[in-house]
Amino acid sequence: MRVAIAGAGAVGRSIAGELLENGHEVLLIDKAPTAISVERVPMAEWLLADACEITSLDEAALQRCNVVIAATGDDKVNLVVSLLAKTEYGVPRVVARVNNPKNEWLFNEAWGVDVAVSTPRLMSALVEEAVSVGDLVRLLRFSHGDANLVELTLPEESALAGTQVGDVEWPEDTSLVTIIRGTRVMAPSLEDSLEAGDELLFVAAQAREEQLEDLLSARRGSTAG
User: Fold this and answer.
1) Mean pLDDT, range 114-131, rounded to an integer
2) What is the pLDDT, as a whole number, of residue 190?
3) Which key words tag this protein in UniProt (predicted)?
4) Which of 3, 39, 48, 180 is least surrounded, with the fewest CB atoms within 10 Å of its CB?
5) How many other C-beta atoms lie within 10 A of the C-beta of residue 140?
6) Are 94 and 114 in contact (CB under 8 A)?
7) Is 4 in contact with 30 (CB distance < 8 Å)?
8) In angstroms, what CA-CA distances link 168 with 127, 151, 205, 210?
9) What is d(CA 193, CA 49) in angstroms, rounded to the nearest whole number?
10) What is the pLDDT of residue 150?
11) What whole-number distance in Å separates Cα of residue 108 and Cα of residue 116?
């Protein structure tokens, strides 16, 4: 897979390193000469250019990329790169870094963004996830379909504890994708039983989040709505 990363700062270089280790082809783009540190990520391709300029993206052959990651520290730049990647070059997957949570509402399909990653929100979500049981925590937002990756730790008193996955009437537009039980990461089957303390990861429509939280947190003896 070929991946272009706009922004060769610490974030961009870190992402590039991970992708290269996984066998992908990576191009780092940055307009600042001081950011071009080939020795830090020697296996990557490097391009000294402004990723907001069509001529630069032509030189980067963006149309050959499977994924573009807008990882600069400037939200305006990340939005422009995302829009150009999607509309001018038809890149299948565009991932954008959100630096200021107040700008999250802009990072959507209209700007060419498939997945928006807000570092401040993700850090706060991970803090919430570590201390909350029974509360739904939003980890990641997907632009297409208005869906989110959410997590909930099943409380001890949940009415669903001991219930098989296939017997649960999940809300529409939700999908249980992973059960984390201790050190195990499980791809759930219909026969798997839910246990108190399980960390459950869902992809869910935002409109269904409250319904999903109510279902999972309902106490034994109460009616799940």
Assistant:
1) 64
2) 92
3) Ion transport, NAD, Potassium, Potassium transport, Transport
4) 39
5) 17
6) yes
7) no
8) 29, 17, 18, 16
9) 53
10) 86
11) 8
DSSP 8-state symbol, 74 = -
pLDDT in the model for residue 120: 63
State yes or no: pLDDT of 74 exceeds 80. yes
What whole-number percentage of the chain has pLDDT above 90?
62
Token pair recorded at residue 74:
């400037």
Pick from 45-49, 123-127, 207-211: least confident: 123-127
Rounded Cα–Cα distance for residues 84 and 146 (Å): 22
Classified as helix, coil or strand, 78 is: helix
- DSSP annotation of 22: T
pLDDT at 80 over 80: yes
DSSP 143-192: TGGGEEEEEEEPPTTBTTTT-BGGGS-PPTTEEEEEEEETTEEE---TTP
- Note whether 160 and 170 are within 8 A (CB): no
**Which whole number is the average pLDDT over 64-77?**
96
Burial class (CB in 10 A: 0-12, 13-18, 19+), 37: middle
CA 112: distance to chain centroid? 15
Query: Average model confidence (pLDDT) for the chain?
Result: 88
The whole-angstrom separation of Cα 17 and Cα 27 is 11
Residue 46's closest CA among 126, 32, 109?
32
